[in-house]
Amino acid sequence: CMDDGEQIVVGLDANEYIKSQTMTAWSHQLGLIPTLQYAHPSLPEVDTCDKGRRQQPIDAIWTTPGLEVLRCGMTGFGEFHAGNTDHRLLWIDLTMES
Question: Could you say which residues of the chain have pLDDT below 50?
């Protein structure tokens, strides 16, 4: 898809630290941007799964560079009720034009 010029969004529960060597190499190889980290570089890292307690996010959203992200963020634990989950809800708002 990317070779054809398409833009993509990848949301992933990686079950490992999203800045691990493996995850970083994977996203760099594909040219993907860790959207929340890029948009909010000064915010501290927080667990995205309530079982972790290590301040290491295991969930993330990556985008291709051509997408224009207007806003993005995450909820606190339990703020969004979408079934039985122990994860934060990560979200992004994109322009349709991009």
Answer: none
Q: Do 15 and 60 meet the contact criterion of CB atoms below 8 Å apart?
A: no
C-alpha atoms less than 13 angstroms from C-alpha of 73 in its C-beta half-sphere: 7
- Report which of 86, 39, 88 is spatially closest to residue 62, judged by C-alpha positions: 39
Residue given tokens 């890292």 in the structure block: 45
Beta carbons of 40 and 11 less than 8 angstroms apart? no
**Distance, CA of 11 to CA of 20 (rounded, Å):** 16
E-assigned strand segments in 29-89: 33-34, 59-63, 69-74
pLDDT for the residue 57: 93
